[in-house]
Amino acid sequence: MFTLVRLIAEREGYLSSRTLPEFRYSALLNQRTDKVMTVGLAYGINCSRMMDSYSCRICGQIHSGVPLSWGPDAPDMWAELSIDEQAARGELGTDQAVIDASHFFIRGRLEIPVTDTSDLFAWLVWVEVSEDSFDNMSQLWTVAGREKTPPYDGQLSNRLALYSEPTLGLKVKLHTRPVGERPFVEVVGDHQLRYEQGNGISAHRVQEIANLLNRD
Ligand SMILES: [Zn+2]
Predict the structure, then answer these.
(1) Which is more confident, 198 or 42?
(2) If you measure from the C-alpha of residue 54 to the centroid of ligand 1, how many angstroms do you get, rounded to a whole number?
(3) How many separate domains does the chain show?
(4) Ligand 1: distance of its center to the CA of 39 in Å?
(5) How far is the CA of 18 from the centre of ligand 1 (A)?
(6) Model confidence at 47, in pLDDT bands (50, 70, 90)?
(7) 183, part of any domain
(8) Is 140 contained in some domain?
(9) Ligand 1 centre and the CA of 153: distance in Å?
């Protein structure tokens, strides 16, 4: 049987890590939740680290304080359940979720390089994996050297409404990172996201994404 790993180690990892400061902005996370539901993401979406000020060659303006990562709080399948169903049928943590003891989800970072700054943009997305993969990840959650594990196959479990092609069900690989860091999500299915991951996006595009997600 599965068990949700309690996330103390992972959270501590984030808090002590300079490179993954998502949790520093926990106040912001809560504030953003309502607004962003209006873009068509099924559930609350969070944002975190900001891009440094950047003078844009595309629009000539300065992009500053633009969030570098965004992501929903839960897999879409979870968000579509009523509160009662959620309580009866599953469990949701910050980085793991299980529904009906048959759908297993892990939260990862779908990172996209920002070509004109040294930043990394990231979608914090949920990925459905097999029960075996989920168990394996849970067992290795706090084990040093876990990043040597081969990647796991999975499917993206969120609709990112910013993309014209569907993202739900998109094939990905989850690459384990050292203890305290979320896994890296590599897009393997044919999609604009795979292109962006391979080629990067502009700082201007990062601003555009922020504008779309903040729109009332
Ligand atoms: Zn611009």
Answers:
(1) 198
(2) 9
(3) 1
(4) 21
(5) 27
(6) low
(7) yes
(8) yes
(9) 36
In the predicted model, what is the mean pLDDT of residues 88-99?
92
Q: What integer best gives the mean pLDDT of the chain?
A: 79
Residues 22-50 have a mean pLDDT of: 38
Q: Which domain holds residue 61?
A: 8-214
DSSP the chain: ---PPPTHHHHHHHHH-SS--GGGGHHHHHHHHHHHGGGT-SS-EEE-PEEPPEE-TTTSSEE-SEESEEEESS-HHHHTS-HHHHHHHEEE-SSEEEETTTEEEEEEEEEEEBTTSS-EEEEEEEEEE-HHHHHHHHHTTT-TTGGGSPPEEEEE-S--TTSSS--TT-EEEEEP-STTSPPEEEE-SSSHHHHHHHH-B-HHHHHHHHHHHH--
For residue 30, pLDDT over 60 is answered with no
Using the mean position of ligand 1's atoms as its centre, give its distance from the Cα of residue 52 in Å. Answer: 13
Ligand 1 centre from 203 Cα, in Å?
7
Question: Measured in angstroms, how far is the CA atom of residue 212 from the centroid of ligand 1?
Answer: 14
Span from the CA of 208 to the centroid of ligand 1 (angstroms): 8
Is residue 1 domain-resident? no
pTM of the complete model: 0.79
Q: What is the 207 CA–ligand 1 centroid distance (Å)?
A: 7
Q: Kindly tell me if the per-residue pLDDT of 43 is higher than 50.
A: no
Q: How many angstroms is it from 62 CA to the middle of ligand 1?
A: 7
Q: Is residue 174 part of a domain?
A: yes
58 C-alpha to ligand 1 centroid (Å): 5
